[in-house]
Amino acid sequence: MIFEELVAEVTERLNLTSDEAKSRVGREINRRYGRLTSSIGLETSRRTQVSKTATIGNRTHTFTGIEKIIAVIDKTSGKDVLLTQITEDEMHTQPIKKQPPRHYSIPNMHQTSVAITMDCTPTTAFLLYADGHVTLTTLSGNQVPDFPESFHEILVFGAMADEYRKMEKIQLAKD
Length: 175
Fold this sequence. Notes:
Blueprint: H1 3-13, H2 19-39, E1 45-53, E2 60-64, E3 68-74, E4 81-82, E5 84-85, H3 88-93, E6 103-109, E7 113-118, E8 127-135, H4 152-166, H5 170-174
Parallel strand pairs: 5-6
Antiparallel strand pairs: 1-8, 2-7, 3-4, 3-8, 6-7
Helix pairs in contact: 1-2, 1-4, 2-4
């Protein structure tokens, strides 16, 4: 089931109709999903590839939609060229080169983006790709929990138990 179906299943079983209730159930499902995946040792991230066009004159490049970079790839020559990661200290001591970039460093990692510094100052716009990890602990829309569908009921029953506790129906929550 996709996330929206999980929320609908809980709200329908409990006859909840308000947008507030649907949002609350969604948060409950996500909390339970995060706890469940980490407690049984499942990966809480997926590998993905994002791209970003370099800005002329700016050595800093921020990839959004990822939380960790595995590789930076230059495809402008028609074949994939992996850039070599170096430290920020090494980047500061190297001379600035001409395009294309061949080294990068990571000065900042944020919740949903990673910034890199390239070893060149772009004189033309070019596209770089980053292989990285995106977090999976917050589901939305048509995303599917990253475990077999036969286990999705755990999320449904968990959210129902949370709602029953909120309604002070403790015996139903325990059941």
